[in-house]
Amino acid sequence: MNNKLVIFLDRLLGQHKEYSGQEFYYKCPLCARADGKMKLAIKLDPSAKDKNGNSIYMHFHCWRDNSHKGTNLFQLLKRMKAEASKFEELKSILGTK
Predict the structure, then answer these.
(1) How far is the C-alpha of 39 from the C-alpha of 88, rounded, in Å?
(2) CA distances in angstroms from 19 to 16, 35, 66, 80, listed in the order given
(3) Which residues face 14 on adjacent strands?
(4) Residue 10 CB: number of other CB atoms within 10 A?
(5) 8 Å CB contact between 42 and 60
(6) Is the pLDDT at 68 greater than 70, yes or no?
(7) What global pTM score does this model have?
(8) Could you give the CA distance from residue 1 to residue 47 in angstroms, rounded to a whole number?
(9) DSSP-derived 3-state class of residue 75
(10) Which are the contacts of 69, defined by CB distance < 8 A and separation ≥ 6?
(11) For the chain, where are the E strands, in sequence order?
(12) Residues 6 or more apart from 6 whose CB is under 8 A from it?
């Protein structure tokens, strides 16, 4: 698990709750209903696989609204309409260009 990534997500989404398998839950910023429940799950285990053996590292989904899901955190930032500096910060943390 990447501690810098967790710190970035905490600054972006607020405090998290961690569950088994390095699955982190946040309040979903995409849901219209702001009841404070942590329904956005983000998988931060690099070795995590789905039932078909495909990597699910950095996949996210909301348990309240199934349309709030994606296969990487850049998709989440895009849906949140985050500023360009957030994309650059995430690229830096992940070591991508």
Answers:
(1) 26
(2) 10, 20, 20, 24
(3) none
(4) 13
(5) yes
(6) yes
(7) 0.90
(8) 10
(9) helix
(10) 59, 60, 61, 62
(11) 17-19, 23-27, 38-43, 60-62, 69-70
(12) 16, 24, 44
Surface-to-core class of residue 40, CB atoms within 10 Å of its CB (0-12 exposed, 13-18 middle, 19+ buried): buried
Task: Name the residue with tokens 């985050």.
Answer: 82
> DSSP assignment, residue 10?
H
Distance in angstroms (rounded) separating the CA atoms of residues 89 and 97 = 11
- The pair of structure tokens assigned to 49 is 């696989």
The torsion of the CA quartet 85, 32, 42, 64, rounded to 10 degrees, works out to: -170
How much helix, strand and coil, in percent to the nearest 5, is found in the chain? 30, 20, 50
8-53: pLDDT as tens digits: 999 999 999 998 878 999 999 999 777 889 999 999 999 999 999 9
